[in-house]
Queue: 2 jobs
Job 1
Amino acid sequence: MVKKYKLADGKEIFAVNNINLEIEKGDIYGIMGLSGAGKSTLIRLLNRLEEPTSGQILVEENADSNGTDSDFSKKNILEFNEAELREYRKKTGMIFQHFNLLNSRNVAQNVAFPLEISGWQKADIDKRVDELLEIVGLSDRKENYPEQLSGGQKQRVAIARALANNPKILLSDEATSALDPRTTNSILDLLKQINKDFGITIILITHQMEVIRKICNKVAIMSNGEIVESGTTKQIFLSP
Ligand code: ADP
Ligand code: ADP
């Protein structure tokens, strides 16, 4: 896959250059690299917030609806119609470095937001919000507003919101970069738990090696738009 941007002076930047990546169901896949390496561009491509200049992005459909592996069919997300794209986005949660909560809504209302958009009934929303807040350990903060929460708590709200529609994939864009080391660890523990309990594939981008070491089973290292190394975290970091 390639994504180039044209700059004002006519020059072109290959933000993502010849990337060929396979992420398996259940992976916690880390994409690491310095600022400007192309990580955000890659994650925006995966979410179709950007269109690649060339290439395709294949996702497996119905990966868990019927048991036989041979029934897996791969679909190119670039060919999705509007309804398919909406469904794909619903099944792809996203969390961010600066949480992106709605400050005018309290915790419960923030978590309820995607469910409202999906057209859920009020009673079902209330029940699901309670479940989600239980999962992230914030049941006692329902009525609080984002400004009344710590960074770690805000990220927990954002995680609850991202999980609302039972996603298959969670995309994390530097989700712990604004947090202190202890809070970072607790958020990473939560992500690991979510991956284990719900089988959600997590794709995370980070510039922090510790994040990769702590929770990722696989890692790709990006530099200048290219993947310069990839493999299991063990292979990449523990080789002699
Ligand atoms: P990272 O997330 O690793 O910091 P980015 O994906 O944000 O890297 O950026 C990769 C490269 O693409 C950088 O050189 C950046 O300046 C460039 N870039 C990103 N978005 C745009 C854009 N919308 N227009 C022009 N250049 C961009
Ligand atoms: P949309 O169709 O506009 O992407 P969704 O209802 O599908 O909206 O979004 C699902 C949830 O994911 C929302 O709570 C939203 O806050 C969160 N979200 C935030 N940013 C993004 C994004 N860039 N891509 C997908 N989901 C996002």
Note: The longest strand covers residues 226-232.
Job 2
Amino acid sequence: MKNIAVLTSGGDAPGMNAAIRAVVRKGNKEGFNVYGISHGFLGLIRGDFKKLEVRDVGDIIHRGGTILYSARCEEFKEVDVQKEAVKNLEEHDIDTVIVIGGDGSFRGALALESHGIKTIGIPATIDNDIPFTEYTIGFDTSLNTILEAIDRIRDTATSHERTFIVEVMGRESGALALYSSLASGAEVSLVPEVAEDMPKVIEKVEESIKLGKKHSIVIVAEGAMSADECSKMITEALNIEVRTSVLGHIQRGGKPTARDRIYASRLGSTAIDLILEDKHHVALIVNKGKIEMKDFKKVLQGNKILDTSILKMIDELSI
Ligand code: F6P
């Protein structure tokens, strides 16, 4: 019987459990022993492996987080550390690892490939910032969590006729900020991919007040600017009452939406299909709704393009 392993790495994302479930169940069905590695690449170094049976992944499809735990593992960049991990895999006779995570996790997978371990990547990050794939597991849940929070903030913003600055996650990616702005009807969205034009932001808020709008909502991605910084500039320029809200890690947890569970199940199951076809050194991607594969190197060298035309749309619709 062939032995394979699965791990989750980087920031957790709702839907990771559904992907683990799919890997274990489909893997078992195809006659593989599936080992779960705890705490991502850290568990790989420590030899923290556990064989997962079909029932071990019962009752998890609807749960956020990851039953395998996750970690960011800087030391995995060192070749000696990688060799330690490979030794642990060889001791368990495992030649293939399915890596569920973001671009940092895919870099770890590529390192394993350089030591002869076969790897397949499943894109999972709330940031939706992996090149070539239109979707990453966790994005939809996170977006809906943000929307729920902004809808609540909007009630208070209207009641007090205030301007609110809401800071969302995304150090290098503005996807959550951009699409939550469009979906919540925010006035302005600030994303790291586009240099901010504060005079224009201030003008937009001022214009909203003049138009008699009951509130203004500005959504900033953490990588663009902090909510406090933005609030300070608007307060100083307009002498108005501004409130801030930093949503933080509530954006990462919670029950995965149907969309995340469906993609996670499809991606997890397809990863096993690829192993059966002896394909590796690839990440699974979503292209026009279809699951395809792309060479890891190409994915990591690619550029994720944010559709910044949406910024104009946000501006035009919030009048
Ligand atoms: O990659 C997902 C993400 O949530 C980013 O949006 C955010 O910048 C980062 O992780 C936060 O990481 P941590 O939880 O390690 O502080």
Note: The chain has a mean pLDDT of 97.
